Amino acid sequence: MRRVVCPGSFDPITNGHLDIIGRAARLYDEVVVAVLINIEKSSLFTVEERIDTLSTVTKQYENVRVAKFHGLLVDFCKANDIPAIVKGIRVVSDFDYELQMAQLNFQLSGVETLFMPTNPKYSFLSSSRVKEIARYGGDVSGLVPDLVHKLLIERLRG
Ligand code: PNS
Q1: Yes or no: is domain 3-124 CATH 3.40.50.620?
Q2: Which tens digit of pLDDT belongs to each residue from 74-122?
Q3: Is residue 14 within 6 Å of ligand 1 at its C-beta?
Q4: From 68's CA, which of 17, 32, 74, 152 has a CA 20 to 30 Å away?
C-alpha cells in the first residue's frame, strides 16, 4: 500500500491544507493526516477538537485517516510504515524552511519528503492569519471549511 503522511498543527485546518490533503489522496492509497501534539505551543483548539474537525472535513475522502503524534515526525512514520511526507509549498520562504526539514528528516530516517505547490488561490493563507482575521471580526468564509468557520466564530466571539 502506498502511504503518505500530511503533518501539521492544523489549528485550525484551512482550505489550503484541505486542498493538499485532497490532491495527495488522489495520488496515494492512504493519506494519514497527523496532528502534532505540541505542549510548548498554545493553541486555539485542543488536539482532540482538531482531530474531530479534520475527520469531519476529510470524510469525503475514503482513503484519508486522522491521527496524532508527538516527538519526531519520522518516528511516527517508522511506527506506522509511512515512507513519505507531503508538504504544501506556498511561497519561496516555505521552500527554504521545508528543504532543511526534509533533508534532516531524510538524514535521520530515510523518510522522503514530497513538495506540492499550493493552489495559488491559497498561497497567502495560514492558520495564524485566519485566527487573527477571525479574532478581529473579519470574514474568513472561503478561507476555511464551513465547519471551521462556525467553530472559529463560536470560540473567538462566543
Ligand atoms: O503546521 P505546522 O505547525 O507548520 O507543522 C509543523 C510540523 C508538525 C510538520 C513540524 O513541526 C514537525 O514535523 N514537528 C515534529 C518534530 C520533528 O519531527 N521535527 C523535525 C526535526 S528535523
Answers
A1: yes
A2: 999 999 999 999 999 999 999 999 999 999 999 999 999 999 999 999 9
A3: no
A4: 152
